[in-house]
Amino acid sequence: MNVDAKPLAELSRLEQCLKAEGIPLTIPKHQILSYSCVDESPSTFVLQTGIVAVHRRSDELLIGIATAPFIFGLTSDVLGNLQEYNLVAQTPCSGFYLPAQKIYQLIHDGNIWQDAFTWVLWINRLLQRRDMQLVGNNSYNQIRAMLLNMASWDDNLRAKIGVMNHIQRSTRISRSVVAEVLAALRQGNYISMSRGKLVSVNRLPAEY
Question: Could you name the CATH architecture of 136-201?
Answer without folding.
Answer: Orthogonal Bundle (1.10)
